[in-house]
Amino acid sequence: MNIEKRMGKEVPFLESHLSRPNSMVFDACLGCGATTIGLRLKKVANVLSNEIDPNMLDVAVSEARTRDVRIKALSYDWRDIPPHLHGLFNMVTCLGNSLTLVFEREGRLRTLRNFASLLDPKGALVIDERNYPSILEGRFNPSGDYVYCGLDKVACRLVRASPGSVVMEYKHLKTGDIAQLEMYPFKSGELIGLLREAGFSRIDTFGDYKEAYDFRDVEFITYVARK
User: Given 3-state DSSP classes, what are the helix, strand and coil percentages for the chain, each rounded to the nearest 5?
Assistant: First the structure.
């Protein structure tokens, strides 16, 4: 993952959707740390991160340390976020195509309702997904320019795609290590439907961070959802 490249495109987009100074942000899926680190480097001081995978947490902490950034992290299952965090945040981020790791519809819906409960009245959930309809139609050609940046270090290929499951393979070009990741592919309009069911009434859609886009040509769809 090229964290610098991801931060360069992701963080300005997030900043443009923060509604007030000194915003509180809940980074629901810390991962390698790109979102949290990028916001902290842009002087968004109040970022609370969440990561249930201890290995990914170690990676994020290491990346943060090299940039003189400190991470404050929790480890909650999205489906069981405690009430004492409700209403505290101006933004919740769930990026890196992360919600597609939850295969049960009720689990996804419960997650989105929990994210909604975290937000203050003017807050926004920023969540993304791969362009799965395009992938299921046989169009998958990752550029390495958005979200999963750094194809010069890790090659990505599609192993299998069906309406119920998509499997990606990632190969580290230096070490030869290979890992596979199985995800649930959202159908056209499916995630928007879940967001509305979870209580979000205004949902703005962006393709590769652009408001005007051709759905067939973008790699990631990002939603900015408000209650």
Answer: 35, 30, 40
